[in-house]
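pinned: reference chain
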Amino acid sequence: MNVLIERQEELEKHEFMMGVPRGRLAVTLDVLTDALVLVGQHGVYCQSARQPGKPAMDIQIITKQLVDAKDLISSVMAELKASK
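pinned: its structure tokens
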């Protein structure tokens, strides 16, 4: 539960605006976005040998997984909003 302490300010702000479940999901999206930025920066330096100009395959896979996770969280947030 350390993340609840580390991101307490962000969580309080988003939970107040959106409610607890959607607020926490919104902060989760922010965390995933930060991770995507870091992976993207790493991908600049780790280029694929087979596909010049593209990140290494593992970086491409990690990026896809993070984007997929963001999409799933966004769909849950939309469902929560619609069910209100």
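why pinned: The chain has a mean pLDDT of 93. The CA atoms of residues 28 and 34 lie 10 Å apart.
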